[in-house]
Specification:
The longest helix has about 70 residues. By secondary structure, this protein is α+β, with helices and mostly antiparallel strands. The chain contains nine helices and seven strands. The protein has two domains: about 100 residues; about 210 residues, Histidine kinase-like ATPase, C-terminal domain (Heat Shock Protein 90).
C-alpha cells in the first residue's frame, strides 16, 4: 500500500507542475489581445513546454538510469546533444508554424532591430540543458532515497541476525551453567538435585520460548529471575546471604529484552560465594516512570582455576545486546569497590524519550 501511495503522489506532483507550466501563458495575456492573438501566444508556448517535457522524460525514464547510472557518460552526453539539437529544431519549426497558423491580428511594431535568429537557438538549448539537469537531479535524489532505505533495511536485518545469534548462544550458555550447578548438587544432596531439575524445567520454558521474542512483559522476566534465584538457593549453603528487593508490580507489562539481566545474576552467584561456602548477594530491581534499574552487589571471590562453570561469554553478550536493543538508552556501571571488596553491577534502561532528549 505504501508503494502505491508513493507512486500516486509522485504522479500527482508531475501533473501539477507541468499543468501549471502549460497554463502559465494564460495569465500573461494583454487586455487588447484578440482570441487569435491569445491562441497564437498559447500554442507557441505549448510547443516549448512539450519540448521540455520530451527532453525531461526521455532522460528521466531512459538516458539517466540506463546510461548515466551505468557509467556510460560519453553515450549519455552524445544522446543528449542529439536530443537537444532535434528538440530545438522541432521547437523552432513549431514556433513558426503556429505563427503562420494564427497570424497576429494587430500590427507588430518593432521599435528596435530583432535579435539574430541564432540567439533563440542558444536560449532554447540552454533551457533544455537545465531541463536535463533537473531530470538528473530528480533521478539522483530518488536513487539516494532508495539507497538509504536499502541501507536501513540491511541494518535492520543485520541487527535482527545478530540478536538471533546472541539468543541462540545464550540458551546453551545458560543451560550449561545451570546443569553444572545441578551436577554439583548430585554429589552431596540428590534430593535437592531432583528439586533443582523441576525448577529448571520452569526456567527453560521462559529461556527457550520467550527468549525468541524481541521483548517480553517485565513481570514475566521478574518471575524468571525469582525462579532462578530459588534454584540457586538450593545449591548454596545457609552461610550465603541473599537479599532481594524487587519493587515491580506483579502485572507490570513494561516491555523488556528477555534474559537481559540473567548473566549478571549468574555472575553474582559464581563470584559471590567463596570456596568455604559463605558470601553475600544483593539484588535490587525497580521500575520508575522513565527507567528500569537492576543493581546487583556481591562479595568478590575471583573465579578459581579449576572452575569450569563458564567462559565469560555471558557478560560479553549483555554488552552486545544492550547496544543492539537499547542504543543510546542505557547505562551500565560496574566494578569492584576496593573498600568493601564487593563487586557491583548496575544497569539502567531508559524509556525512548529520556536519553534522546539529554
Amino acid at each position: 500500500m505504501a508503494k502505491k501511495f508513493s507512486f500516486n503522489r509522485n504522479t500527482l506532483i508531475h501533473v501539477l507542475c507541468w499543468g501549471l507550466l502549460i497554463a502559465f501563458p494564460i495569465f500573461m495575456y494583454r487586455q487588447n489581445d484578440t482570441m487569435t492573438d491569445a491562441m497564437r501566444h498559447f500554442m507557441r508556448s505549448l510547443g516549448a513546454t512539450v519540448g521540455y517535457m520530451i527532453v525531461f522524460y526521455i532522460n528521466y525514464c531512459y538516458i539517466v538510469p540506463k546510461l548515466l547510472f551505468e557509467n556510460k557518460r560519453k553515450r549519455f552526453i552524445f544522446y543528449n546533444v542529439v536530443l537537444i539539437f532535434l528538440t530545438v529544431a522541432i521547437m523552432t519549426w513549431w514556433w513558426h508554424a503556429m505563427g503562420n497558423t494564427f497570424p497576429a491580428s494587430t500590427p507588430q511594431h518593432k521599435p528596435f532591430k530583432a535579435p539574430p535568429q541564432w540567439t533563440r537557438f542558444v536560449q532554447m538549448s540552454l533551457m533544455l540543458v537545465l531541463v536535463v539537469g533537473l531530470s538528473v537531479a530528480l533521478r539522483m535524489s530518488q536513487r539516494w532515497s532508495k539507497l538509504q532505505q536499502a541501507k536501513k533495511e540491511a541494518d535492520r536485518l543485520r541487527t535482527e541476525a545478530e540478536l538471533m545469534n546472541l539468543r541462540n548462544q545464550l540458551n546453551p550458555h545458560f543451560l550449561l551453567n545451570t546443569l553444572n550447578n545441578i551436577y554439583a548438587l548430585i554429589a552431596f544432596d540428590p534430593e535437592k538435585a531432583q528439586i533443582a531439575v523441576g525448577e529448571l524445567s520452569k526456567l527453560l520454558r521462559h529461556a527457550l520460548y520467550d527468549n525468541q521474542k524481541k521483548f517480553v512483559p517485565l513481570y514475566k522476566e521478574v518471575e524468571f529471575i525469582e525462579n532462578y534465584i530459588e534454584l540457586m538457593k538450593i545449591r548454596v549453603t545457609n552461610n550465603v546471604k541473599i537479599n532481594t528487593d524487587i519493587d515491580i508490580d506483579e502485572n507490570d507489562s513494561t516491555p523488556i529484552a528477555p534474559l537481559i539481566f540473567i548473566s549478571l545474576i549468574e555472575n553474582a552467584f559464581k563470584h559471590g560465594v567463596s570456596q568455604a561456602g559463605d558470601g553475600e548477594i544483593s539484588l535490587v530491581m525497580k521500575n520508575n516512570e522513565d527507567k528500569i534499574t537492576c543493581e546487583i552487589v556481591n562479595t568478590n571471590h575471583p573465579k578459581r582455576d579449576n572452575d569450569k562453570s563458564g567462559s565469560g561469554i555471558g557478560l560479553e553478550q549483555v554488552d552486545k545486546r544492550l547496544e543492539l536493543m537499547y542504543p543510546g538508552r542505557y547505562e551500565w556501571e560496574k566494578g569492584v569497590d576496593k573498600e568493601t571488596n564487593k563487586y557491583y553491577s548496575k544497569i539502567t534502561l531508559y524509556n525512548e524519550n529520556k536519553m534522546r532528549n539529554n
